[in-house]
Amino acid sequence: MSDQIPPQQPPFTNVPYSEVPNAGPVVPPQQPGYPPQQAGYPPQQPGYPPPQQPGYLPPAGYPPQGAYPPQAAAPSTGMSENSAAALSYVTIIPAIIFLVLEPYNKMPLVRFHSIQCLLLAGVSVILQIGLTILSIFLHFIPMLGIVVTALFSILHLVVFVGIFIAWLMAIIKASKGEWYKLPIIGDQALKMARGQ
User: Fold this and answer.
1) 92-100 and 108-139 are packed helices; what angle lies between their axes, rounded to 10 degrees?
2) pLDDT in tens, 17-67
3) Which of 27, 110, 170, 180 is the most exposed place for a label (fewest CB within 10 A)?
4) Contact 62, 49 (CB under 8 A)
5) What's the half-sphere exposure (Cβ side, CA atoms, 13 Å) at 129?
């Protein structure tokens, strides 16, 4: 290693540097690219252009004095047609909102998928209620009650999985901007969306 001893610093005092005897005037350090500092002026901060003087042109990227950057354009509807169509399948609430709100109820793709979502929800509720009522009535038949209950439980599951797959396919196709029609209800949704 080295046997050098670091230079000793003077002891700390609470006396400002300007009041230390023989310290000289306080001059801020010179920064490259800026005019020399004069006493009484605040120091220049790095990264900021020098103050504007007659004949001075600011560097590229800085607006001229008194000029402000242009204001941002007015926001659009906020959502693309494809994303609104896909979002309409997330419960029935967005579907109803898109059928009522002004920019979306004018978009044919969003109207079609919103109506198809409402019809899909209605068909799924009717199917599940119908299967439940039928299974309750058939449950009371002697000797078939347990078998009917097991069969209808499986049938409920199959109907639920089928509706879920149809719902998922509709979301995927709507996000791509496709006019995907579900069996049976798709034609009715298309007629309602066109106003026929």
Assistant:
1) 140
2) 556 666 555 555 566 666 665 555 555 556 655 555 666 666 666 666 655
3) 27
4) yes
5) 6
Q: pTM for the complete prediction?
A: 0.57
- CA 23 – CA 1 distance, rounded (Å): 35
pLDDT in tens, 164-181: 999 999 999 999 988 888
Half-sphere exposure of 73 (CA within 13 A, CB side): 4
CA distance 124 to 37: 79
Q: Enter the tokens of residue 164.
A: 């879920």
Q: What distance in Å separates the CA atoms of residue 155 and residue 149, rounded to the nearest whole number?
A: 10
Computed from CA positions of residues 113, 117, 122, 128, in that sequence, does the dihedral angle turn out positive or negative?
A: positive
Measured in whole angstroms, how far is the alpha carbon of residue 1 from the centre of its chain?
59
Percent share of the chain, pLDDT over 70: 61
- Residue 100 tokens, joined: 């009522």
Other CB atoms within 10 Å distance of the CB of residue 115: 22
Per-residue pLDDT, 172: 93
Q: Are residues 135 and 129 in contact, defined by beta-carbon separation less than 8 angstroms?
A: no
Residue type, 158: V
Q: What is the pLDDT of residue 134?
A: 85
Q: Are 181 and 115 in contact (CB under 8 A)?
A: no
Give me the count of residues in the chain: 196
